[in-house]
Amino acid sequence: MIDIKNPYLPELATVLQVIEETPNIKSFQVVFNDPEKMKGFAFQPGQVGQLSVFGAGESTFVINSPPTRMEYLQFSVMKAGEVTAAIHNLYPGDQVGIRAPLGNWFPYEEMKGRNILFIGGGIGLAPLRTLILFMLDNRSDYKDITIIYGARTPPDLCYKDELKEWEERSDVNLILTVDNEYPGWVKRTGFVPTVLKEVAPSPDDTVAITCGPPIMIKFVLEGLAQLKFKDEDIITTLEKRMKCGIGLCGRCNIGSKYVCKDGPVFSLAQLKEMPDEV
Amino acid sequence: MSTEKVKEAIAKILPDVETVICWQGGFDAVHATPCFITKPDEIDKVIWNPLCAQNLTSYLPSLNKKKVGIVVKGCDSRTIIQYLQEGLIDREKVVIIGIPCTGVVSVKKVLKEIGQEPVLDASFSGSGGITVRTAKGEKALSVADVCPDKCRSCQYPTPLVYDHLVGDPITSDKPKESVYQDVREFEAKTLEERKAYWEKELGRCIRCYACRNACPMCICQDSCIAETREPHWISQKLSLQEKFMFHMIHALHLAGRCVECGECDRVCPMDIPVSKIKKKINAEMKELFNYETGVNPDDRPPMFTFNVDEVKIKEHKI
Amino acid sequence: MPDTGYLPKGKIKDFIKELAKDAIVYAPVLEGEAVVFGPFSEEQELCLERPANTPPKSVIYPQSETLFTFEHKKDPEDHQKMSVELKAGIDAPGTVIFGARPCDAKGFIIYDRVFINTDTPDPYYMKRRENTLIVTLSCAAPFSGCFCVAVGGSPASKEGADAMLTELPDGYLIEPVTEKGRAILNKPMIEDGSSRLKDAQQVQQKAHEAVKNPFAKGRPEISPELFDADPFWEQALSKCVSCGACTYLCPTCYCFNITDEQTFGKGERIRSWDACMFFHFTLEASTHNPRPTKFQRFKNRVGHKFVYYPEKYDGAIACCGCGRCIRYCPVSVDISEIVNDLGGGGQKQQTAGSAKND
């Protein structure tokens, strides 16, 4: 038998830097130990990777840095369970395993020349950030870029430095919100779906991309429908408990589609043809 | 107690409850299956005969927000009493139809008697006989020969708790010593013999957790130590060590709680006599605390109590 | 070499020993009252009279296996520098599965599409599959719960086998199916079977006609309206106790888990069977569970076998009709009855009002 690639064997990598984004979210910048692997690594914005802490396990995260900025790969991790707690215990120099790229990606080719509306909540900004940075690095390919982003409280906002940068750019319209009034917060308040209604962006030639907690996505999708966005123009990226990441173990399926392989990026039109099981 | 009388009892209580849990015919002539009656026209499919082996009480805790009716044999009723001792069900929410029972059949034993042939038909004589028909002909068996081991030492053929009793009460004709006779006989073997026995039997285990999920007293289920990683005591590696660990922990969780309904033995697809482990612990609990599971709703399971000085545990001598 | 072989009944153990000269032979043996596939040895009691309790899937797809080991190492020059060493090895000795039933062999065909016909094939499965010879035994008569003919199978189907045995009064006819299977006709105790082929075909035909078809429409046909009706599942599955017996005994189920186990700086990543019937299967770290009820989980299981897998693989059904899930279910949940009810036909209709919801 010809020796085939072992899809379960991770590539070894080293943690370069750990950034504390919020009280329970950290970003990890990693590089492959093998410099050839790092040089030759290619991926599309929206694809995910399985990050291993040997002994604890593996977990799926979107590759949070864009392919236009390849000094390292970044993963943003919210501490929730055993593996993410182990990841949060990592320091620069620690060894991890990576299996990437997995899954499909944002259909950015079809978005060229159109207006882009990003709607994110909490750590949901992580996959959106990849595409936002990618688009900013190819700015002339896209028309207006609007970002509506909210979190529970100001400390829970991710990528605070970048939010400041985006706010200052004239070619990006950033609308920030937090759920309720908060000492020192002078910008708007309200849940993301409510702010979406207030901002009422036009659906004309616009693609909406959203990611966040399931309850936020539910109301955002309703809001976008009310604003007359077409189902094919609404894109989201899903989360599921994953293990193999390659469509074999049968765990992350919604109907006949595997979130790790046929997703995690789906349009609302596609979701409507799948069983209601998010 | 005929099937007709059981159906009458169900019809009587159905208006007051959301569902009545009973038995109906299963996928072949030698299996019954649980049935959840909600409408009067469904009562016709109810059966009562020695095929009705399943302990239906295991559904009660998860249904406890609703008022339900249930049909129980003597052994099943012990589960209800144990549930009451542990506060797992609300007595007001359960309407119990009790049926005095003269034994059920073990499908495994019937199939062994008839060379594993598929059963085409099974009929019962009122006097403890069962006749099975296969493609190779008919065979007459007696329930007493093909009943599960628990029936051979049954102390409580009449339900100990009920709202309606269908049929006349029966008293047990089995000596009390017979309950743990098999445990005591097994204990007489040497340690090496016992170790070899369990290594052989548990080696077959495929950790399907049928025994765990069919057990009415096992309530950890969705957070079972065998599957969780917080805490991480048992791995997913299939080894004798992990299988022993699961079965020992399961048996210990049932110490002083197992009502010896025998479901674990019945459902094991690998024919492992898992109930032996639990009966051993129960036998010890009886010795140490003079406690018998599922007979008196006012009892407290010994593992729920604490005395600084236990009557039969002489710790100072160790 | 003749086209068919014949193995006299008295020589069957010798034949297995012959095969065992250059392979590990797994055959159905009696343990307690259960028949399991185990590496065959003289002392064991071969049991071919009935289908084994467990399918032989664990021979090619073991219940647990090590994907790779890892070891944390400190750099002897610089103790701050840690490295990890990964070692992957695939154990795939020459193997023979002897005495599987046609339904068991079909299971491997279903796995092949998932584990091999993909752009990320599974090398562990592939190597073992390549190194395994499958010799099936056709069924003389259906067993309780069997319905292979209703899902495109047969008690004498050769699909998935390298060679198939058919039981005759004094021996077994051996029909080779693949070149690999033809090689076993070489063994010294195999006689020419051509004169017995016709008898064997009659036995096979009789068995095929005896298998019950539980589907009123002859094939599983699932009505989308009923499939999506929650009350249908609540009514049909109230009795399910959510264990994993049906999954682990199923020749076509293959879902798995990947977990790390370690002690003191070294450990292994293990792949092990898992069951979509368990609550934790889709439980996310946030505690959100897309399938929190047993009804949703069973619906997904039936959906996977009869709707989703066929959608992906040209209509192939991921159920071989062996009936084990029905026989060994603690409460006798009957998947063939449920699928028949989903087709709307044959049995009592499930009405929308027959279950009361919370």
So what's the overall shape of chain C?
Answer: flat
Largest sheet of chain A: 7 strands, mixed
How is the main sheet of chain C built? Answer: 8 strands, mixed
CATH architecture of the largest domain in chain A: 3-Layer(aba) Sandwich
- Estimate what percentage of residues of chain A fall within beta strands: 25-35%
Proportion of β residues of chain C?
15-25%
CATH fold-level name of the largest domain in chain A: Rossmann fold
Mean pLDDT of chain A: 94
Low-confidence stretches of chain C: 347-358
Radius of gyration of chain A, taken over Cα atoms and rounded to an integer in Å: 18 Å
User: What's the pLDDT, averaged over the residues of chain C?
Assistant: 91
**Element order of chain A: H for helix, E for strand:** EEHEEEHEHEHEHEEHEHEEEEH
Strand order of the largest sheet of chain A: 10-9-8-7-11-12-15
Euclidean distance between termini CA atoms of chain A: 40 Å
CA-based shape of chain A = globular
Which sequence of strands runs across the widest sheet of chain C? Answer: 3-2-6-7-8-9-1-10
Summarize the structure in words.
The complex is a heterotrimer of chains A (278), B (318) and C (358). Chain A is an alpha/beta fold and 278 residues long. Chain A folds into 2 domains: 11-102, Translation factors (Elongation Factor Tu (Ef-tu), domain 3); 108-237, Rossmann fold (3-Layer(aba) Sandwich), CATH 3.40.50.80. Helices cover 23% and strands 31% of the residues of chain A. A 7-stranded mixed sheet of chain A has the order 10-9-8-7-11-12-15, sandwiched between helices. A 6-stranded antiparallel sheet of chain A has the order 4-3-6-1-2-5. In chain A, a hairpin with a 2-residue loop joins β1 (11-22) and β2. Chain B is α/β, with parallel strands linked by helices and 318 residues long. Chain B has a domain at 180-312. In chain B, 31% of the residues lie in helices and 14% in strands. In chain B, the strands form 2 sheets. A 5-stranded mixed sheet of chain B has the order 2-1-3-4-8. In chain B, strands 5-6-7 form a 3-stranded antiparallel sheet. Chain C is built from 12 helices and 12 strands. The longest helix of chain C has 19 residues, at 294-312. Chains in contact: A-C, B-C. The interface between B and C is large, with 55 and 49 residues.
